[in-house]
């Protein structure tokens, strides 16, 4: 519901009708009463009511009746709670958790898990390391197992397989579901399948009647087979859970995970030239628009942040940025996780292009523009000053890190 | 110093016509192998020696291609495991997924499990090989790279981040030799229970609106940019604004 304040004719009618059971509740707040010293006290703020335009109206004709109750528009729906007190079996899901949150692929997978679990089974989500997700309950997680420890941090696929084997021994899930994605799930699932000796069903896009269908070969054929125990499912394999709330009860492993001797050592991420990453798949885009006056400073900030540069249509038309850097309907539809818009007011064509972005940061002079409505964090101010402060802050942060490491 | 590298190749299928061709990722594995080992590269295929598409790999400048001869529908895994165990290779390169058949991408994982070797996924570049270990760059989604140190011998899959394969030339493709080995044939039991069928196009997901009231449906149909919820910093100094932005960027892990 919108926040527009409206007259409620029914409430006014109840307030006029002394015989209505809700009559007392609809009376306007008392605004004059006898004080302790026998003096009449008045509350001048209690007089009148808030009109349809949000302006206080005082009607002295005596016709005013209805309560001055502002009807708030809280439509927070509490979904019904789905409980599995004693699960007959488990369906285990290992979400990717890109950036520490459930991706849409993970949510689809949880939907598929619920399809397989029915009413008796419980969906067990196995999450490695720290996470930032707070919506496990609405995503459909009945039991949550967080495997923490520095051995699981970074790139440690062999150790994670050991963790999954321990989960397999303890819970013996009926099915294992992993996302068949490039961001970890596909690899982990296949490693786990090889370790278990199970033959997984890969790139599965439909599970129906104890049969699963997955893409085969280069995508020209489908492979239909009986439901496998280990399923690597493609994106949009099922509808995500949307009508129930779940417990997300934390569970723990009773045994400690075997430490595997790592034969692959993670030496960390390598700096990649951000300009060489295609815009459509860049993770972090720093985009400039009409509000940017100092383009040299803009490029300098993008370099300092290590971000891929983008631009709005105006900036491209004015010749400040190349055409292939344009974000939006007639440019590139980007999928960045973090999108920083500097001086972009947010035309609808531009907002369409950043529809898939996770976090949007806006730097703008106009507090009423559409980009600010879309953004998760907006800073109102002159872009040049903020960019300069940002460069200084990044440099200070990096120097601090270096001093801590030394 | 020469490295003993084996590239595993398969028969691909053209994405539109479905005709046999050199598989793209396998060709990248051969290209990477040629860059690593030069003329010492061994290329191995399990399947039919008479397949003309195999000659496209020879056309990349190989003198010889080993074929473990198998009928279609046979399991390539036991033959390859037995061959690689005795081949003395330090690096084995494969594509990440076959273009025909099941294409589950499990072969390198099962080979690594059978041989007990480490496996690197999405190899983009081998930086150096010395002292029984290799420094390699792994391709991550969104164009990122990660440096790994892996013990030799190891298996690696390549995907589209690996160097582009060189063209296949006709003359070398004719001159190259296909050396066939007879191996024990093991049938793949999956094909007994599973059926291959032409791929069904997947329907685009519909946006289902589960509104209970007419007002909710109207709102869902006319919704503009999702308003509110965001934090707006107004009237703060540039420094405070920049700090807030940087805090979010660090939390998201994009500024390192």
TrEMBL record, chain A:
Domain (Electron transfer flavoprotein alpha/beta-subunit N-terminal): residue spans on this chain: 91-266
SMART domains: ETF (SM00893)
Keyword annotations of the record: Electron transport, Transport
Signal peptide span: none
GO molecular function, one term: flavin adenine dinucleotide binding
Pfam family, one: ETF_alpha
One Gene Ontology biological process: fatty acid beta-oxidation using acyl-CoA dehydrogenase
The name this protein goes by in its record: Electron transfer flavoprotein subunit alpha/FixB family protein
Highest taxon above the source species: Bacteria
Claim: Transport is one of the keywords in the record: yes
SUPFAM superfamilies listed in its UniProt record: Adenine nucleotide alpha hydrolases-like, DHS-like NAD/FAD-binding domain
Listed InterPro entries: DHS-like_NAD/FAD-binding_dom, ETF_a/b_N, ETF_a/FixB, ETF_asu_C, Rossmann-like_a/b/a_fold
Entry annotated with the keyword Electron transport: yes
Family: Belongs to the ETF alpha-subunit/FixB family.
From TrEMBL, chain B:
Source taxon at top rank: Bacteria
UniProt keyword annotations, A-Z: Electron transport, Transport
Record's keyword annotation contains Electron transport: yes
InterPro entries, per the entry: ETF_a/b_N, ETF_b, Rossmann-like_a/b/a_fold
Signal peptide (residue range): none
Gene3D superfamilies assigned: HUPs
Protein name per the record: Electron transfer flavoprotein subunit beta
The keyword Transcription regulation is annotated on this UniProt entry: no
Domain Electron transfer flavoprotein alpha/beta-subunit N-terminal: 11-189
Family of this protein: Belongs to the ETF beta-subunit/FixA family.
SUPFAM superfamilies according to UniProt: Adenine nucleotide alpha hydrolases-like
UniProt organism field: Pseudomonas khorasanensis
Pfam families on file: ETF
Lineage: Bacteria, Pseudomonadati, Pseudomonadota, Gammaproteobacteria, Pseudomonadales
MF GO annotations: electron transfer activity
């Amino acid at each position: 519901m919108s926040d527009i304040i409206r007259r409620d004719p029914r409430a006014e009618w109840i307030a006029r009708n002394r015989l209505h059971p809700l009559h007392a509740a609809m009376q306007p707040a008392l605004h004059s009463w006898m004080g302790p010293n026998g003096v009449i006290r008045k509350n001048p703020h209690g007089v009148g009511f808030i009109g349809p335009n949000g302006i206080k109206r005082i009607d002295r004709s005596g016709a005013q009746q209805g309560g001055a109750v502002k009807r708030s528009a809280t439509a927070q729906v509490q979904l019904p709670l789905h409980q599995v007190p004693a699960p007959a079996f488990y369906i285990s899901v290992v979400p990717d958790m890109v950036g520490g949150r459930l991706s849409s692929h993970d949510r689809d997978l949880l939907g598929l898990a619920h399809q397989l679990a029915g009413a008796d089974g419980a969906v067990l989500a196995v999450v490695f390391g720290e996470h930032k997700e707070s919506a496990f309950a609405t995503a459909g997680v009945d039991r949550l197992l967080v495997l923490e420890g520095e051995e699981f941090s970074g790139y440690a696929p062999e150790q994670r397989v050991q963790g999954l084997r321990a989960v397999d021994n303890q819970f013996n899930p009926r099915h294992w579901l992993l996302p068949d994605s490039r961001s970890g799930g596909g690899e982990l699932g296949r490693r786990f399948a090889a370790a278990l000796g199970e033959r997984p069903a890969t790139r599965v896009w439909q599970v129906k009647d104890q049969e699963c269908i997955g893409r085969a070969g280069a995508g020209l054929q489908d492979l239909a087979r009986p439901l496998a125990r280990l399923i690597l499912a493609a994106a949009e394999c099922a509808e995500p859970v949307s009508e129930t709330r779940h417990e997300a009860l934390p569970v723990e492993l009773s045994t400690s995970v075997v430490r595997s001797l790592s034969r692959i050592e993670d030496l960390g991420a390598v700096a990649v030239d951000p300009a060489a990453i295609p815009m459509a798949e860049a993770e972090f885009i720093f985009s400039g628009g009409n509000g940017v006056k100092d383009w040299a400073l803009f490029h300098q900030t993008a370099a300092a942040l290590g971000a891929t540069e983008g631009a709005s249509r105006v900036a491209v038309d004015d010749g400040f940025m190349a055409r292939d850097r344009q974000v939006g309907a007639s440019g590139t539809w980007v999928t960045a996780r973090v999108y920083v818009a500097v001086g972009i007011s947010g035309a609808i064509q531009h907002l369409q292009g950043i529809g898939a972005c996770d976090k949007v940061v806006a730097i703008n002079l106009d507090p009423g523009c559409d980009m600010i409505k879309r953004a998760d964090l907006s800073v109102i101010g002159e872009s040049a000053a903020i960019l300069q402060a940002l460069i200084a802050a990044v440099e200070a942060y990096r120097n601090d890190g270096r001093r801590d490491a030394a | 110093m020469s490295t003993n590298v084996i590239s595993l190749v398969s028969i691909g299928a053209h994405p539109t016509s479905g005709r046999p061709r050199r598989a793209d990722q396998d060709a990248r594995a051969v290209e990477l192998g040629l860059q690593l080992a030069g003329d010492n590269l061994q290329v191995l295929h399990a399947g039919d020696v008479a397949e003309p598409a195999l000659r496209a790999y020879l056309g990349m400048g190989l003198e010889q291609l080993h074929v473990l001869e198998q009928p279609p529908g046979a399991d390539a895994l036991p033959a390859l495991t037995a061959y690689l165990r005795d081949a003395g290779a330090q690096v084995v390169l494969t594509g990440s997924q076959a273009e025909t058949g099941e294409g589950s991408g499990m072969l390198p994982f099962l080979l690594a499990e059978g041989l007990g070797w480490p496996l690197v996924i999405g190899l983009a570049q081998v930086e150096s090989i010395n002292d029984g270990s290799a420094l390699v760059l792994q391709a991550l989604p969104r164009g990122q790279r990660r440096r790994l140190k892996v013990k030799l011998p190891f298996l690696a899959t390549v995907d589209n981040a690996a160097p582009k394969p060189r063209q296949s030339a006709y003359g070398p493709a004719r001159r190259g030799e296909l050396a066939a080995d007879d191996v024990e044939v093991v049938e793949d039991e999956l094909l007994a229970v599973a059926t291959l069928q032409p791929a069904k196009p997947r329907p685009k997901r519909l946006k289902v609106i589960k509104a209970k009231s007419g007002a909710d449906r109207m709102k869902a149909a006319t919704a503009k940019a999702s308003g509110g919820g965001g934090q707006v910093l107004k009237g703060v100094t540039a420094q405070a604004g920049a700090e807030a932005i940087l805090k979010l960027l660090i939390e998201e892990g994009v500024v390192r």
